[in-house]
Amino acid sequence: MEIETMILAPAPAPGVFPDQPARDAPMCLRMMKPSGTQGFREVLYDLVLALPALLFLLFLLTRLRSNVRKLMQSRSHIMTTYYTFLWVICILNICWTLLKMQQTRGPDQETAWNVMSLVTRFGMVLLEVSVVVFLSQGYLISGWDALLRTLLFSGLFAAVDALLNAVYIFGLSIPLFITQDDAGDWNKWGFWMMHNLFFTAVYFVILILPYTRWRDRLPARPAFYHYVLILFILNGLEAFGSTLLGFGADFGYCVYGLSAFFYYALYPPLLYATFLADFLREEDLQMEDAYYSEMKDAGYFDADWE
After folding, report:
1. Which CATH number fits domain 22-276: 1.20.1070, 1.10.1760, 2.40.50, 3.30.420?
2. pLDDT of residue 108
3. How deeply is 78 buried, as exposed, middle or buried, from its count of CB atoms within 10 A (0-12, 13-18, 19+)?
4. Where does the signal peptide begin and end (predicted)?
5. Helix segments in 21-76, DSSP class H
6. How far apart are the first and last CA of the chain?
7. Which residues contact 126 (CB under 8 A, 6 or more apart)?
8. DSSP letter assigned to residue 22
9. What dihedral angle (degrees, nearest 10) is formed by the CA atoms of 63, 64, 68, 74?
10. Three-state secondary structure readout of 68-131
11. Beta-carbon contacts of residue 129 (< 8 Å; ≥ 6 apart)
């Protein structure tokens, strides 16, 4: 799943489309890519981009002390790794948004945008793939083994994905992350269509696994399947939007851009709510301490010292 959202990409440099001024651009493209003038719409556009990442980062900051205490007490390598990755992704998203807000529209800015997009997208793909890889291993191996296998496979997949994007951008000069009036360009939209269809197919397989003989391979927690369903829908919408744009339908800008924006805005809190919230809840820590104290007072652990 990519975060190369049409909403977040910077405006093209001056002169890129001399025959196609902004006022003649498709309506959906104008809505998602305001002009470079610092008017009310441009300011509102930047605030909408930055608000989700800022709010979630503030949320993490308010719970930082209790979360770190919980992780240190539990000594869970898996949860500590995911929590760290979540922070890294949030910081990258903030930097990415600030870069968009400070864009100068020059070629250097375009290069910086592409590099930041590649780095941020690498982190998002790493998280997405690692969740599926880790949970698909079941409970047959230890935490360290699961963590190492997960990071190895997901890191390799994310690196190949980033390399492929870099080849398209810097080798073939196909602007994967740049918003422009390019409906009908199959070089770009065919790539995103195939990419999103791949992730859509993976999530579809996961959704039907509970109805097959392999249903015991994945956890039975409803939250996990809610997580998969949301990503299945978002990837499917992006694939549909890419297909529309490949055929030259301007409405595809709305479908692709809005679904990609919601992915960018929702994925970090979705990951936190699905896999980390219950584990890091302060009440759970207090409850565990209370249970331990009661059991110790009752002499439950006396046999351990004999």
Report:
1. 1.20.1070
2. 63
3. middle
4. none
5. 27-32, 40-62, 64-74
6. 55
7. 85, 154, 155, 157, 158
8. G
9. 20
10. HHHHHHHCCHHHHHHHHHHHHHHHHHHHHHHHHHCCCCCHHHHHHHHHHHHHHHHHHHHHHHHH
11. 153, 154, 157, 158
**Amino acid 200: pLDDT:** 95
Task: Report yes or no: 45 and 70 within 8 Å, Cβ to Cβ.
Answer: no
The tokens of 9 are what?
């990409």
**Residue 291 burial by CB count (10 A; 0-12/13-18/19+): exposed, middle or buried?**
exposed
Exposure of 183 in the CB half-sphere (CA atoms within 13 A): 20
Pairwise CA distance, residues 245 & 253, whole Å: 7
Q: Give residue for tokens 């900051």.
A: 61
Q: Which residues of the chain have pLDDT under 50?
A: 1-23, 104, 139-140, 284-306
Look at residues 153, 146, 147 and name the one whose alpha carbon lies nearest to residue 129: 153
Q: How far apart are CA 223 and CA 207, in angstroms?
A: 12
Q: How many helices (H) and strands (E) does the chain have?
A: 11, 0
The pLDDT score that the predictor gives to residue 103 is 53
- Picking from 134, 158, 156, the residue whose alpha carbon sits closest to that of residue 224 is 134
**Sequence-ordered list of residues with C-beta below 8 angstroms from that of 117, at least 6 positions apart, any chain:** 3, 4, 96, 177
Give the list of residues 6+ apart from residue 94 with CB closer than 8 angstroms, or none.
50, 53, 54, 57
User: What are the sequence ranges of the domains in the chain?
Assistant: 22-276
Place of tokens 């602007």: 175
Provide the pLDDT for residue 201.
95
Handedness of CA 78, 58, 255, 42 (dihedral sign): negative
